[in-house]
Amino acid sequence: MTPPAGGNHNQAWANCGVYDKKIPDKYAVHSLEHGAVWITTDKASSGDISKLKKLAGQDYMLMSQYPGQGSKIVLTAWGHQLKVDNASDPRIKKFIDAYLQGPQTPEPGAACSGAYDPNTGKLAGQM
């Protein structure tokens, strides 16, 4: 799947939050293992991005760009994915409700902060 919905990943996870750039797969996938839902966009409208940022402003959510993903908006959880064309699609809320810290989560409740910072590209504790 693109973006990946599981598989090999870095020992560090991406800090959950909203980012205006692409998050490396190896960190984002580890966040999915902890129960995060990852919203990615590619050429989505500014209105859709604003709506999605509001949804992504909760615990265990990631949001980033993902050029070349084949859909304007993709929601990904461990082992699950939803592709939609606009942020008004009612399936978005259903997906988040079902999979955010959902039963598919291999490591429920594990941290979603304090590791890889997508803004700086550094791991916690690195200068």
Explained architecture:
- The protein contains 3 helices and 7 strands; from the N terminus they run βαβαβββαββ.
- The longest helix has 10 residues.
- Strand 6 and strand 7 form a beta hairpin.
- The N and C termini lie far apart (34 Å).
- The strands form 2 sheets. Strands 1-3-2-4-5 form a 5-stranded mixed beta sheet. Strands 6-7 form a two-stranded antiparallel sheet.
- The protein is α/β, with parallel strands linked by helices and 127 residues long.
- It is globular, with a radius of gyration of 13 Å.
- The protein has a domain of 87 residues: Glutaredoxin (3-Layer(aba) Sandwich).
Order of SSEs: EHEHEEEHEE
Q: Would you tell me the structural class of the helices and strands?
A: alpha/beta
Mean pLDDT: 96
**Number of alpha- plus pi-helical segments:** 3
Oligomer: single chain
Topology, number of strands: 7
CATH topology of the domain at 17-103: Glutaredoxin
End-to-end Cα distance:
34 Å
